[in-house]
Amino acid sequence: MKNRKTAYIVQAAVGAVLFAAGLFVFPKDGAWAQFGACIGFGAAFLAVGLSNMVYLAKLSPEEQEKINDQKQIEVNDERNVRIREKAGHMVAKVMTYVLCVFVLILALMGAAQAVVLLAAGLLAVHLVLWIVFSNYYYKKF
After folding, report:
1. Each residue of 65-119: pLDDT tens digit?
2. Separation between Cα atoms, residue 130 and residue 31, nearest integer Å
């Protein structure tokens, strides 16, 4: 609980700093994109951090313990674990195809060779990681 409270305080402080930077630093330089980003992210971080601190302050320690136990059960539930595994697998599968198409588009657009090779290198890294993790989990289970 102390770690969560500290995290919320830090989040609110970062939000306040970003918000202040957006208000006082960036408008003078004419950097309107940075101004908007700092104001937006700062306000969001500040609001979320403060609302989470208020939420924690309203809960009794017994209620917090009960909620934490329920969250722990839901996180470790076999069905939820399997759903996360399937979702992660499908995301990786789709992103492989997206990255392949991205490399082809870069090559056809005449992008610099270094950029195309870098993107193709990501595919090679993906393949190597797939082999390493497959072997690891095959031996583990």
Report:
1. 888 888 888 777 888 778 888 998 899 999 999 999 999 998 999 889 999 999 9
2. 43
**Which residue, chain included where needed, has tokens 């722990």?**
72
SS3 per-residue string spanning 57-114: HHCCHHHHHHHHHHHHHHHHCHHHHHHHHHHHHHHHHHHHHHHHHHHHHHHHHCCCHH
Residue 61 CB neighbour total at 10 angstroms? 8
Distance of alpha carbon 8 from alpha carbon 53, whole angstroms: 6
Nearest to 20 by CA among 4, 3, 43: 43
Share of the chain above pLDDT 70, in %: 95
Are the C-beta atoms of residues 67 and 76 closer than 8 Å to each other? no
Distance in Å from the first CA to the final CA of the chain: 35
Distance CA 135, CA 106 (A): 32
Tell whether the model's pLDDT for residue 63 goes beyond 70. Answer: yes
Q: How far apart are CA 113 and CA 123, in angstroms?
A: 16
